[in-house]
Amino acid sequence: MTSHYTSADLVLTPRGVRFHGRVFPCSHGKGGYTQNKREGDGATPTGTHRITGMFYRPDRITKPVGWAHPIGPRDLWSDASGTPEYNQHVRAPYNFSHETLRRADPLYDLILVIDWNMHPALTGKGSAIFIHQWRRPGFGTEGCIAFSRTNLRWIAERVMIGTRLIIPHSS
Predict the structure, then answer these.
(1) Bridge partner residues of 22 (DSSP)
(2) What is the distance, to the nearest Å, from the Cα of residue 51 to the centroid of all Cα atoms in its chain?
């Protein structure tokens, strides 16, 4: 990839994600990396993505930044390919396939939303590709990038809307 990176970019490297002069270990999709993302393939899409939003669990953590939105019991993310809401934040009741953002485990206590397959979302090209907390080091995700709770919080306090997440094709 022949792009110029800045210290304010989240850049995937062989050692982890580089951001603001630090390198953070991370987990990625259990299906590896792909330039041809498909719904349910477990792969992390390569390319340059941008942070478009942040959600957090106010019953579990304090608000990380002023622009973060609280996750409530009705908050969902549509993974119903072919619907108008595909790959968007929706609220219950929602009668199509979705992910619950208010999970019993801590993985979605803090979520950074990236612009993968948005505006418009293409049917079957993948949904709910987030930056979130990992289960444990090296445990594959469904296509997201995941960090330790501490590192995710540090990153969340410093990213902005539009911060780039760069996943090189050679990852």
Answers:
(1) 19
(2) 8
Q: Long-range CB contacts (< 8 A, 24+ apart) of 33-39? A: 33/167, 33/169, 33/171, 35/169, 37/116, 37/117, 37/125, 37/126, 37/129, 37/143, 38/124, 38/125, 38/126, 39/79, 39/81, 39/124, 39/125, 39/126, 39/127
Contact 170, 156 (CB under 8 A): no
Enumerate residues 6+ apart whose C-beta is below 8 A from 28.
12, 44, 140, 141, 144, 145, 146, 171
DSSP at 153: H
| Tokens found for residue 61 | 């953590």
As given in the structure block, the two tokens for residue 109 are 């206590």
- The structure's pTM equals 0.94
At 18-36, the pLDDT tens digits run 999 999 999 999 999 999 9
